[in-house]
Amino acid sequence: MRPDSRNGSGERGSRCRRGRASRRRRRLAARYTLLTIGALVVLAPLYLTFVSSLLPPSALAERPPPLFPLDPQWHDYVIAWTQGDLGVYLRNSAIQTGIIVCGQLVTSVLAGYAFAFLRFPFKRALFVVFLATLMIPFEVTLVTNTQTISELGWYNTFAGLTVPFLATGVGTFLLRQAFLQIPRDLREAATLDGYGRLRFLLRIALPLARPALAALGVFSFLAAWNQYLWPLVVTGSGNGVRTVQIGLKLLQGTEVSRTDVALAGTVIAVLPLLVLLVVFQKQLVRSLTAGAVK
Amino acid sequence: MADVAFRGATKRFDRRPAVEHLDLEVADGELLVLLGPSGCGKTTALRMVAGLEEPDEGEIVIGGRVVNDVEPKDRDVAMVFQSYALYPHLNVERNIEFPLRRRGVDAQRRRQTVHEVAASLGLQELLARKPRELSGGQRQRVALARAIVRQPRAFLMDEPLSNLDAALRLQTRADIVALQARLGTTTLYVTHDQVEAMTMGHRIAVLDHGVLQQVGPPHALYDRPANLFVAKFLGSPGMNVLPATLEGTAAHVARVDGGHVPLGDDGVAASGQVASLAVGVRPEHLALSPSGTLEAKVLLVELLGADVHVLCQLGHQTKLVVRQDASAPRPAIGDGVRIAVARGSVHVFTGESGGRLGGPG
After folding, report:
1. Is A132 in the same domain as A91?
2. CB atoms within 10 A of CB A207
3. B81 → chain A, closest CA residue
4. Domain of residue A281, residue span
5. Domain co-membership, A243 together with A163
6. Number of neighbouring beta carbons within 10 Å of residue A65
7. Which of A219-228, A249-258, B179-188, B309-318 has the lowest mean pLDDT?
8. Cβ–Cβ below 8 Å for B81 and A207
9. Does some domain include residue A70?
10. Per-residue pLDDT tens over the stretch B145-154
11. B249 lies within 8 A of chain A by CB
């Protein structure tokens, strides 16, 4: 090969590398722009709610609304907490959510295990029935459920708030899929090692299904915490078991019927969710992308 | 330690037999290899001993006791799985001690036993690691350690070497043989690899389509295969099998495509009773020689280091392999050659059932 031709190919290679690097930079820039826009769309309402909760009532009506509170009104939070009884509502929500999350985890683990590992008659048909429940909107069962709860005398009780949600088709499906990933050899090795079904579940299957469990826990928490319609229907006057979502609605109907206070209450109610999302974001993403890449 | 026996054991899946009327005894302290191709029922047989499959008919006996209705955990057997079946969330130490925890062994004793077993298998440095941080060979040793730690009455090994590379397989093969000899534990070892079977087993039981074909010491199966299946399955390459006709009623010569082969001094007197025959000759009993009785054409010459395999065609359809020393003159592809058959080395089988009619030994 002649030296000049070698130089020529070297320049071509260098140009090619530069071209590739520049294309990569452009793609990266486009990606970040899109992500930034997405983040703004998602975070802007949260930010505006937070800012508005710190504004004095007069500033709330300004157009465009101020984007930074120069004189933050922290006492709105105190009013929401004390006069709006948010502490009680939050406690009720925590109890209701705790019962529902624990219930769903337990029932989903047991049902998922049965569908994944046990042999019993009509297994496939039963699983289809489980999946079919996913197609029925909650609103369809509202009247029947309300009637049942009231006949059981569970109106305005935590039992009424939580029992209809203790089992979930999604959770069962999620855990079944996670258990099916466990190789049969592990089950058999544990059997030979003397571990029965329950011990295998507790010692082997559950630790291996931790990501699915965490994801189910987070989803259950979000769904239970954000419930509005059901708590509204099965709880009554007095704040004995009323949840924070109902409490927020009531904030507007009481003497503290002020938008800035209501917004402060909203921020307080959203805080546990934000903490949960930050702590469990890895599990959430993993569960959402599970099965996407083999 | 205990002897293990199958007595007419049959297992069917969807009415199709995986193991059929298996009668087999494994003596106390013996290493018996269950050998056969994929789907021959060898793993099913092993799983019946473990209690992971229930026989549809017959009995499984361990230590003189019928265990058909005994739970797997109460059979006191340890299994090493092809996939090793290590618990991924536990470190090596916890994996090894896992069976002991269930048996209520106290923590100090557990720790001592685990360390002893780990030391015997060279695993001391790896006790804190998770299975995903181990190589294939190390995982294999952990699986062995987990089996040993219980001091079971029998080991059941289901193709434990099949996921290892060739060099490691060779080493681990020797390790398992040495370990079994040291512990003296009755062992059933399942493999499809005839080299593994030949080198490891005190005896080999060959299975095909769920039916036991032959059982005996490796050299007996190699030298006197009971039928065509065993003849072709054992040996690498397997025995050459040629369709043949006998000349005369008490024949000393069999006519095959491309020539004839001598049948030894006793000959075979069965020509009148069988419609078709097959003769079998091991590749090492053939030689390229101008005085050979078979005429052939060379199709392929494979150099394997010390040996050379020469694939030849006899007549129109029959092919056979000749093994010769690498130092011998090598033919070229397409050459016409003559092949000599060593006297007394020809096995005779019926062409239909494949049963043995005569031959050396």
Report:
1. yes
2. 13
3. A185
4. 76-289
5. yes
6. 12
7. A249-258
8. no
9. no
10. 999 998 999 9
11. no
**Domains of chain B from N-terminus onward:** 4-229 (3.40.50.300), 237-358 (2.40.50.100)
Q: Please tell me the predicted confidence (pLDDT) of residue B254.
A: 81
Residue contact B81–A185, C-beta within 8 A: yes
Domain-embedded: residue A212? yes
A6 has a pLDDT exceeding 50: yes
The answer, yes or no, to whether residue B266 has pLDDT greater than 80, is no
Please list the alpha-helical segments (H only) found in chain A: 3-53, 57-60, 75-82, 86-117, 123-132, 142-151, 158-162, 169-180, 184-192, 197-200, 206-208, 210-225, 229-234, 244-253, 259-289
Does one domain contain both A111 and A53? no
Same structural domain, A26 and A110: no
* A275 shares a domain with A241: yes
Q: Looking at residue A294, what is its pLDDT? A: 33
The number of domains in chain A is 2
Q: Which residues of chain A have a Cβ shorter than 8 Å from any chain B Cβ?
A: 183, 185-186, 188-196, 199, 204, 207-208
For B204-235, the pLDDT digits (tens) are: 999 999 999 999 999 999 999 999 999 999 99
Nearest neighbour of B72 by CB, restricted to A183, A191, A208: A191
| Chain A residue whose CA is closest to B97 | A193
pLDDT of residue B72: 94
CATH number at residue A206: 1.10.3720.10
Residue B54 at interface with chain A, using a CB cutoff of 8 Å: no
Please give the pLDDT value at position A258: 78
Q: Residue B78: its chain A contacts at CB < 8 A?
A: 192
B73 touching A, CB under 8 A? yes
Tracing tokens 């031959």 back to the chain, one arrives at B359
Cβ atoms within 10 Å of B266's Cβ, excluding its own: 12
**What percentage of chain A has pLDDT greater than the value 70?**
91
